[in-house]
């Protein structure tokens, strides 16, 4: 390795002319390639909320901004597309997407209520809600304390939908914006506000409502997954946004935007940022003879802090203890941690600030250092506890052969003292320690076991603090400070292989022009191979990271080759199809004959790049399930189809619910349209929203005419029953009685009225009014009363005459009796 480095450095020094000529030729060849004309596509239409900081805001000139807006711009920019934003309050913004006036929205919380209306990208942020109260409030500590209180939320927001999903006895007070909700709380018109925590922090900062505070406890069950959203079924736009989102997350744009909009809200306040590291990992980080932090990482962190205006404390200790401190919140960020896919599930990482190479180490005279994993078989291996080498060897099934120590220095010391068969450690750190400690009985392997990105790291969800360090690294790279620090601490290990005798030796050889050209050619080949190897390693690392992301995705993700044989599946795919899915034809899982299978052929024939299909698939338990598939073709550099990558989601319950909803809607529409009674839907303020055909006939107006009227336009407002009925409905939510109604020609008629207040699926209160014309019934009742009155008068007349006759008969009988004659009339006793 040392000789090869000397040789290469000499050639680089003496072959600059040839390299310059080659570079010019490549430059000319590259920039003289014709550029294909690109098809100009119209910008995507979107809409942004006017006041949902820091996600979506509108400046003084009416321009949309905020984290979500800029993220959508960046995602579409990565796909070569532009976007134009309309602005308005959330109810309008939502309606524009529902009606197709815009193509997508940058900020929509994914909820069960919205699944039937929109399709969503993968979430770009998941956050929990919070409760805001007045500072003097002591009786509210969580969601359970809100029963019987007035809680302000923004109309149509996730918070309103969450509170309406379950009856908790909360009086929901809806406002146009969250700023209005917070002001209502401040002025005593509400007892609390349920809101997303970051939005509350930003609004309290902007509005200076110092009398409010955020309860330091998330709202149980209220998690918001923020996504881009498109109309239900718009698969093309959804795929465009998902791909663009993946690109900006991979290239660092997401971290930059996150830092820009959230860093001030998420960075620790009232204390310094604690930066952790290993106390025995020279020359990167260690404690010097005075017990003070020193090394490459330490200088790098201090330089970043100066550039970014951060107040930091560097805390070094045993590596395993420092990692535990970060997991438990005592350390905010690690200044050096190797990226591994397994670690990506627990931590977030910046871009790499160096790349380290792990090599094997043995004692002299005990054989060559192991060069492959097979060479490690049966050996006693020493590594640092919780180091990347530890994680790597455990993942490879070698945990039983490992001895663990607390530092890289301890790895080399124990080997030098005759313990263990070999060790794995970082090359540069090992060179430093061997030179410092004089361990001349140790030999380093030349073969790299694993090259790893060395990054700043923080727990998942702490992207804001990482974004500060990521941005600082970019600044140091641009102003040259990064190269100065690297040269100070690492330069000696990059240059130590060069010596003057070798230079002169090879100089004599390469004087021959023919050999000079040959060596230049060899150098070119070597450089090309090294570039290819480095790029291959980088791509492998990126591939591992992407596979980790795919593995964590909740949707099914499958890969097939050109023969439609499954070659890869994420955990969700294995859980659905079974552990034996790899190597089996996709056709094995189709239930019955389906046109879908033939439709997929358009991908493999090269006719389509992306398609959406729905198909019945056989789950591992034998049950048939309906899956929605988004399939994208995979092609090689020559445009030949190599296979397809597909994402699927089980939509069985969703389709059943949609069908049930469709039938339910048809059923109720049939009742509505065919009812003999008039049916009216009104808003709480009295505006008529809809009317059935019987209502149109009863009032002598069309639906369009009725929906331009208000409830009072159809009622005789002088009827004393009106005020009484409204009072009953206000108290109980429903009322029944008789009212005088007014037709289009101004004539009045009597009607039975039944009125009920209800809340529709969107959370909007409405009233349904059933009107039955009782004019004919009233006329019949009046006619009956008149007949009964006449009958009563006749009856009274007859009874009066009968009484007179009885009295006359009594008088005649009395006279006959006086005359000594017999009574003529028999009088019946009453």
Low-confidence stretches: 1-39, 496-507
Residue-averaged pLDDT = 82
| Structural shape | elongated
Assign the structural class, choosing from mainly alpha, mainly beta, alpha/beta, alpha+beta, or little secondary structure. alpha+beta
Domains, number: 6
- What CATH architecture of the largest domain would you give? 3-Layer(aba) Sandwich
- Head-to-tail CA distance between termini: 141 Å
Q: Quick one: how many beta strands?
A: 36
Beta-strand fraction estimate: 25-35%
Number of helices: 26
CATH topology of the largest domain: D-Maltodextrin-Binding Protein, domain 2
Helical content (DSSP H or I, runs of 4+): 40-55%
Features:
10-stranded mixed β-sheet, alpha+beta, 6 domains, disordered N terminus, 8-stranded mixed β-sheet, 36 strands, 42% helix, D-Maltodextrin-Binding Protein, domain 2, 830 residues
Task: Show the helix and strand layout.
Elements: H1 2-14, H2 16-31, E1 44-49, E2 51-52, E3 56-58, E4 64-65, H3 67-78, E5 83-88, H4 90-98, E6 104-109, E7 118-120, E8 125-134, E9 150-154, H5 158-164, E10 171-175, H6 178-186, E11 192-196, H7 197-207, E12 212-214, E13 223-231, H8 235-250, H9 253-266, E14 273-278, E15 280-281, E16 285-287, E17 293-294, H10 296-308, E18 312-317, H11 319-327, E19 333-338, E20 347-349, E21 354-363, E22 381-384, H12 388-395, E23 402-405, H13 408-416, E24 422-426, H14 427-437, E25 442-444, E26 450-459, H15 463-479, H16 481-495, H17 500-509, H18 513-552, E27 556-561, E28 566-569, H19 571-577, H20 595-599, H21 601-604, E29 610-618, E30 624-635, E31 641-650, H22 652-674, E32 678-682, E33 688-691, H23 693-699, H24 703-706, H25 720-732, E34 734-742, E35 748-759, E36 765-773, H26 775-818
Parallel strand pairs: 1-5, 9-10, 9-11, 14-18, 14-19, 22-23, 22-24
Antiparallel strand pairs: 2-3, 3-4, 6-13, 7-13, 8-11, 8-12, 8-13, 15-16, 16-17, 19-26, 20-26, 21-24, 21-25, 21-26, 27-28, 27-31, 29-30, 30-31, 32-33, 32-36, 34-35, 35-36
Helix pairs in contact: 1-17, 3-8, 3-9, 9-15, 10-15, 10-16
């Amino acid at each position: 390795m040392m000789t090869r480095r000397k040789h290469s450095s000499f050639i680089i020094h003496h072959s600059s002319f040839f390299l310059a000529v080659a570079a010019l030729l490549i430059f000319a060849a590259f920039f003289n390639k014709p550029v294909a004309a690109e098809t100009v596509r119209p910008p995507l239409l979107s809409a942004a909320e006017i006041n949902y900081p820091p996600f979506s805001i509108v400046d003084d000139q009416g321009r949309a901004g905020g984290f979500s807006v800029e993220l959508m711009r960046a995602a579409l920019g990565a796909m070569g597309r532009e976007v134009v934003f309309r602005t308005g309050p959330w109810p309008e913004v939502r309606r524009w997407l529902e009606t197709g006036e815009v193509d997508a929205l940058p900020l929509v919380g994914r909820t069960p209520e919205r699944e039937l209306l929109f399709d969503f990208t993968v979430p770009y942020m998941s956050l929990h809600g919070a409760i805001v109260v007045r500072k003097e409030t002591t009786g509210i500590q969580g969601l359970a304390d809100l029963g019987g209180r007035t809680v302000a939320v923004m109309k149509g927001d996730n918070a309103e939908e969450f509170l309406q999903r379950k009856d908790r006895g909360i009086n929901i007070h809806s406002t146009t914006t969250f700023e209005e909700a917070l002001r209502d709380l401040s002025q005593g018109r509400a007892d609390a506000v349920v809101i997303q925590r970051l939005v509350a922090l930003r609004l309290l900062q902007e509005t200076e409502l110092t009398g409010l505070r955020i309860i330091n406890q998330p709202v149980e069950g209220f998690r918001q997954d923020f996504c881009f959203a498109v109309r239900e079924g718009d698969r093309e736009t959804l795929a465009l946004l998902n791909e663009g989102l993946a690109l900006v997350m991979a290239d660092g744009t997401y971290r930059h935007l996150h830092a820009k909009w959230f860093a001030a809200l998420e960075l620790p306040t009232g204390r310094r940022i604690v930066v952790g590291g290993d106390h025995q990992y020279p020359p990167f980080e260690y404690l010097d003879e005075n017990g003070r932090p020193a090394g490459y990482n330490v200088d790098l962190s201090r330089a970043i802090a100066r550039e970014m205006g951060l107040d930091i404390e560097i805390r070094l200790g045993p590596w395993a203890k420092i990692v535990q401190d970060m997991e438990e919140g005592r350390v905010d960020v690690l200044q050096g941690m190797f990226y591994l896919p397994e670690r990506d599930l627990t931590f977030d990482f910046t871009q790499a600030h160096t790349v380290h190479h792990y090599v094997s180490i043995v004692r002299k005279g005990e054989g060559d250092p192991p060069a492959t994993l097979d060479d490690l078989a049966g050996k006693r291996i020493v590594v640092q506890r919780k180091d990347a080498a530890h994680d790597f060897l455990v993942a490879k099934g070698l945990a039983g052969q490992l001895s663990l120590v607390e530092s890289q220095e301890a790895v080399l010391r124990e080997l030098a003292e005759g313990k263990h068969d070999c060790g794995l450690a970082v090359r540069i750190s090992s060179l430093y320690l061997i030179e410092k400690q004089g361990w001349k009985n140790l030999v380093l392997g030349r073969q790299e076991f694993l090259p790893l990105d060395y990054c700043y790291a923080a727990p998942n969800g702490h992207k804001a603090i990482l974004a500060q360090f990521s941005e600082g690294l970019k600044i140091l790279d641009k102003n040259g400070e990064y190269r100065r620090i690297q040269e100070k601490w690492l330069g000696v290990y990059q240059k130590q292989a060069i010596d003057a005798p070798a230079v002169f030796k090879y100089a004599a050889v390469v004087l021959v022009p023919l050999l000079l050209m040959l060596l230049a050619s060899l150098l070119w080949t070597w450089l090309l191979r090294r570039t290819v190897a480095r790029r291959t390693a980088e791509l492998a690392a990126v591939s591992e990271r992407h596979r980790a992301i795919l593995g964590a995705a909740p949707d099914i993700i499958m890969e097939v080759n050109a023969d439609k044989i499954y070659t890869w599946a994420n955990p969700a795919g294995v859980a659905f199809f079974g552990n034996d899915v790899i190597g089996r034809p996709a056709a094995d899982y189709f239930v019955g004959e389906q046109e879908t299978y033939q439709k997929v052929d358009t991908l493999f024939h090269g006719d389509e790049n992306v398609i959406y299909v729905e198909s019945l698939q056989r789950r591992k338990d034998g049950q048939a399930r309906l899956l929605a598939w988004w399939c994208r073709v995979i092609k090689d550099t020559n445009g030949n189809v190599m296979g397809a990558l597909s994402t699927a989601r089980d939509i069985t319950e969703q389709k059943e619910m949609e069908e049930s909803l469709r039938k339910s809607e048809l059923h109720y529409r049939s009742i509505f349209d065919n009812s003999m009674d008039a049916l009216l839907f009104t808003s709480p303020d009295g505006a008529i929203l809809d009317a059935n055909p019987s209502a149109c006939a009863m009032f002598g107006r069309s639906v369009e005419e009725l929906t331009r009227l208000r409830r009072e336009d159809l009622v005789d407002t002088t009827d004393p029953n009106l005020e009484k009925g409204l009072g009953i409905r206000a108290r109980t939510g429903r009322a029944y009685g008789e009212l005088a109604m007014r037709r289009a020609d101004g004539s009045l008629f009597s009607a039975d009225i039944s009125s009920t207040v209800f809340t529709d699926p969107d959370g909007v209160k409405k009233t349904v009014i059933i009107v039955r014309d009782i004019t004919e019934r009233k006329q019949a009742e009046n006619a009956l009363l008149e007949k009964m009155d006449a009958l009563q008068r006749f009856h009274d007349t007859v009874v009066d005459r009968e009484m007179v006759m009885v009295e006359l008969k009594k008088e005649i009988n009395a006279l006959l009796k006086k005359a000594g004659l017999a009574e003529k009339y028999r009088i019946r006793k009453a």
